[in-house]
Design goal:
Length: 120
């Protein structure tokens, strides 16, 4: 029974992440920004982007962590297109990054395995 419940939770989480990602890409503002630096939170690095939106300046971290800033695709000073959802001023997504969808597919797959184990 626990396999079915846990699998259902994982499938729901995967579905939620996909809907959230699609919503952000459709309703979000696609804005050019400048990568200013990387913030270090518990030995995990996050890119920090600087941009203006409706006359206000923002410095917001990216939603996806970076293992090593020196091997990141972009470097401080580079212009990067981001997706900014005005209702969420904590994180932004990099345009063309689909890691959130990969996480969602992983949740779906793990949930499906647990559900199949229940019915087996």
């Amino acid at each position: 029974m626990w396999n079915l419940i846990f699998g259902g939770i994982l499938v729901f989480a995967g579905f939620y992440l996909i809907v959230k990602g699609i919503y952000a890409r459709v309703k979000g503002e696609h804005i050019p920004s400048r990568l200013t630096s990387f913030s270090n939170e518990n030995d995990t690095y996050y890119p920090v982007f600087n941009f203006n939106y409706q006359g206000q300046e923002y410095n917001i971290t990216g939603a996806v962590p970076v293992k090593d800033p020196s091997s990141f695709k972009y470097h401080p000073g580079d212009t990067v297109n981001i997706i900014f959802v005005p209702s969420n001023t904590k994180y932004v997504d990099i345009e063309g990054s689909y890691k959130d969808f990969l996480y969602a597919l992983g949740f779906f797959a793990a949930g499906a395995v647990f559900i199949l184990l229940y019915f087996r």
